[in-house]
Amino acid sequence: MIAEAGLAALYLAAALALLQLAVAAIPALADKAVATARPIALAQGLLTCISFLCLLLVFIRTDLSVTLVAANSHSAKPFIYRFAGAWGNHEGSMLLWVTVLALSGALLALLSRRMPERMLSAALGAQAALALGFYAFLLIASNPFARLNPAPLEGQGLNPLLQDPGLAFHPPTLYLGYVGLSVAFSLAVGALITRDVGPALARAMRPWVLGSWIFLTLGIVAGSYWAYYELGWGGWWFWDPVENASLMPWLAATALLHSVSVLASRGGLRTWTMMLAVVAFSMSMVGTFLVRSGILTSVHAFAVDPTRGTFILALLMLYVGGALALFVWRAPTVAEGARFALVSREGALVINNLLLSVILAVVFLGTLYPLMVEAATGEKLSVGPPYFNAVAGPLGLLLLLLLVVGPLLRWRRHDAPIAGKVVPAVLAGLATLVATVILAPGISLMARLGLVAGMALIPASLMPLLGRSLRRTPLATWGMVIAHLGVAISVLGMASDAAFTRERLAAARPGERLELGPWLIDFVSVSPVAGPNWTALEARLRASKGNGTEELHPQARVFTSPLTETSEVAIATTWNGQLYTVLGRKTGDRWQLRLWWKPFVTFIWLGGVLVAFGGFIALAGRGWTNRRNRRRLEEAEL
Amino acid sequence: MNLKPKHQRLILAISALIALVGAAMLAMWGLRDRAAYFVTPTDIASGAVEEGEPLRLGGMVEQGSLVQLADGVTLRFIVTDGKQQVETRFRGIPPSLFKEGSGVVAEGRLRGRKFEADNILAKHDERYMPPQLGNSAAEHAAGQTVEK
Hints:
Largest sheet of chain B: 5 strands, mixed, barrel
Shape of chain B: elongated
Number of domains of chain B: 2
CATH class of the largest domain in chain B: Mainly Beta
Order of helices and strands of chain A: HHHHHHHHHHHHHHHHEEEEEEEEEEH
Oligomer: heterodimer
Structural class of chain B: alpha+beta
């Protein structure tokens, strides 16, 4: 019953999306379009939520007569994974995608009371058109509620690598970011149709871009940390196509975030911002295509049904092609933006946008090149970290350099000298350069440049606060400063990990003592332990550094359903880094141990969280300023 | 600089175009040098693979070839694609799905005629098969999907 209710809700939502599209398209309804579309969008959001709740319910109850549950769940699974396992598979995650899409449309209808009616109506139509395609994809090619008859006695279980708290957080966060960008896309399409491209549109679009970007940032940070501790390789970014699939929308959203601010406050970069809004959500769809079609060489790629890939590709071509055609048709009619000199805040933001776009383009080409070559010649190849590091690394450094001066420039045109404000950054950078050359002559060039740039960026990111009254500084400026500081900290973490990581691989007997960097590690024992659906061999390590002692228990786990071995790393976190330990196999009377000491590696993710927090402050500040302005306006009217 | 708005827009469009062409050229340069990143034992046997370059070697672990060396942390095995073999050494802890007769993707470098792996890619699923090895093995495992 529950599964049928979920499916029925989904069919109803699809019908409503069709209706919503018709409302926007029929000229006779133009006067009442928004008033008609608003409740439809809300109902759609509600119905997809019901459908998603139904999916959660069948998973929590482990209803094995539902094919998806039987293939991916097991009654002995801990509660949190029965719950989160609902989206740990293809169909469930696509239902989550569609639910977020419909909810975004509902929120757009609910919150945008100040937008020109015609534009909002067109945007809601575009949102409905997007939703319709993905409903069709779910209902035709990936029905999550299909029944299985006869029902099996037990499910096949969830892939043990996904049985991790990360599963509860990472995919939903990433999807909120991915799909939130659909609203920026729909608003851009709406504004292009109604020829309303201007600051009002940008002000409506900005919170959506900011919100999506915050979630994308957090989703990527969570995914990176998850891969770091789950895979047991000590790495935090692998340039895997699936990671690139989340990085590409993030790069586009970061560029869009900066250009939409120029449009909102200065009226410039109109066509460019529209282009970016289309590209950003297109990248979300490209990402979905890459992950859900399984066509690329990837550690995440599994054998999948090829019709699904074709279906998503068709949707992708339809939406991206349609939006780009609309863009090309309407771009010449977009009004000229305000002028600015090359040396100005706008000028710096243009360079920021160009650099981000170039990075996006090289990542995009590197990710899709193997696919294109295979389609054209049948030759199979893969592109990996050597390519991405070589092309994206230097561009990223240029972006950091720009970050030192950009926020110091004035809007429109900058005449005053800024040399004085750059001095602290230059001094910090030079001091770091000298220090690393003397103390760590052997580190790689990119790691050294990363350390220099990160250290220079810390004072530079704080400079916009210089000479201001901190209480009067707008929250948006605080947000920018915090986010840029987060970038500096994250870059320092990456560079420190690349430069100073120490690794030790040993076959050791219990009782032996190992040395690694500042740590002395005693290998105490190995003993068997058991969990709810796994058994494991657990090593006891006692690690000491200075006065502190840490106990670590890395495990080699065996899951019972499906029967799989995984290795659970144990990590000791101190203020200045992480000790990362992996237990391997037994060879003779010795155990394989792989140990890493990673100074300041935590800065990578702390910086990322700080970046997202800066975005949150800017978002909160905008809402607060709006309310204050509105109140003032109302008081003035009285 | 007192530009007319029209000129400013033109300059912006041209700089965007230059940036994108630059990106394409950069990508082509990077890909030309590094796209032959995934190799098979046949590629190595044909002599087309340069020594010392970072590579991914894909194939199957030959039955009966897996040996643990005396240091306790080095594995020696033969990677085969059915036509040619490459002797491979790996220092480290292999992922649990790594065993004789299963598919493998190893990251490392070619030294002499041997492959030195510093990483063996983990697979999220026992049904995973490197697409480069053809779809035959993937096809018989298809039917069910488990995905992240």
